[in-house]
Design brief:
Helix content is about 70%, strand content about 0%. It is built from 12 helices and no strands. The C terminus is likely disordered.
């Protein structure tokens, strides 16, 4: 039964909004690299198992797997490491707000990778306004009381990585996407290979001499129990990565990457509410004002353009049709 894309869109907002809370819980016993690795591995196994049960084949080997490696890097490996790294320094609520810059970066990378898709004046003004919202959150005029700039910058880079990733998918993989679970399964598989390699390097660099070499999945020193954090990241991997990637691919196929990226409108709201309820986090007024500016800019960017399509630009509907 075909599920309407707005239903999948809403499910994505709730799932990914809760992901920042789960990452914060995971940091109680796991390092950011461990969180990203466990999340991607469990997500990849979930999608691969579903694909096998449904008899879905992976894309044929060749040029497409090189593009899938890049997509796995910028849509999975990089942001899944950067977000928990950032949450070591900032709240889960603020990390969710950083994720809201995805539509802004999508516009910038669309200009670079899809020259025919030129933004109009309204979109350019919205991007500039959105970055002003980022400046308000960072409060460069204040020496104390502002959020950790390095941590917040990591969340901004993670959100920008999503914008680059989905634009890259549209540019290089839309014609090869036959629908179903094949493409998200292959992308997560490539990301899993990358993170296993990164995790082994991380383990080698952090091995202990006299105490022996710990396993890559060993809890970080000082943690009392790893059960709760590991369960939280497994839920994040199975639901927040495995199921969510299938839903995201379906949304992008149906309405395009620009509209698909607007799921970030709701994600910060969910992240802030969950952070306040379960972690007792609080936002200062500049962070609230900056978040409102960013979300308003994202809404403007997501609104469809009226009038004829400029010469040489492929309509969103045609791109969607080709990807099915």
């Amino acid at each position: 039964m075909r599920v309407p894309w707005p239903v999948k869109f809403g499910a994505l907002a709730l799932i990914w909004g809760a992901s920042f809370l789960l990452m914060k819980v995971g940091l109680g016993a796991l390092a950011p690299v461990q969180i990203a690795t466990l999340r991607i591995l469990s997500g990849a196994l979930t999608v691969l198992a579903a694909a096998l049960l449904m008899g879905v084949r992976l894309p044929p080997f060749g040029r497409i797997w090189g593009h899938l490696a890049v997509a796995g890097l910028v849509l999975c490996s990089i942001p899944f490491v950067l977000f928990p790294l950032g949450e070591e320094r900032v709240s889960s609520a603020l990390a969710g707000i950083g994720n809201a810059t995805t539509p802004l970066s999508t516009v910038l990378f669309t200009v670079l990778l899809l020259p025919a898709s030129r933004p109009d004046g309204r979109t350019v003004a919205a991007v500039v306004t959105g970055f002003l919202g980022v400046v308000v959150i960072m409060q460069p005029w204040q020496a104390q009381g502002r959020p950790d700039l390095v941590g917040f910058a990591m969340t901004l880079l993670a959100g920008a990585s999503y914008g680059l990733g989905w634009t890259y998918v549209k540019r290089f993989l839309s014609k090869d996407d036959l629908g179903g679970l094949g493409m998200p399964a292959a992308q997560l598989l490539m990301a899993a290979v990358q993170m296993v390699a990164v995790n082994l390097v991380w383990w080698w660099l952090h091995r202990e001499g006299d105490a022996g070499i710990p396993a890559p999945w060993s809890p970080v020193p000082g943690s009392s129990s790893a059960l709760g954090p590991v369960v939280a990241i497994l839920v994040l991997g199975v639901v927040g990565t495995g199921l969510a990637f299938v839903l995201q691919y379906d949304v992008v196929r149906e309405v395009g990457p620009t509209v698909g990226a607007t799921v970030t409108y709701v994600i910060p709201v969910v992240a802030v509410v969950l952070g306040m309820v379960f972690l007792h986090e609080r936002l200062q007024w500049p962070q609230v004002v900056g978040a409102v500016i960013i979300l308003a800019s994202a809404v403007v960017i997501g609104r469809p353009r009226r009038g004829p399509v400029p010469t040489g630009e492929v309509p969103e509907e045609e791109v969607t049709h080709r990807s099915r």
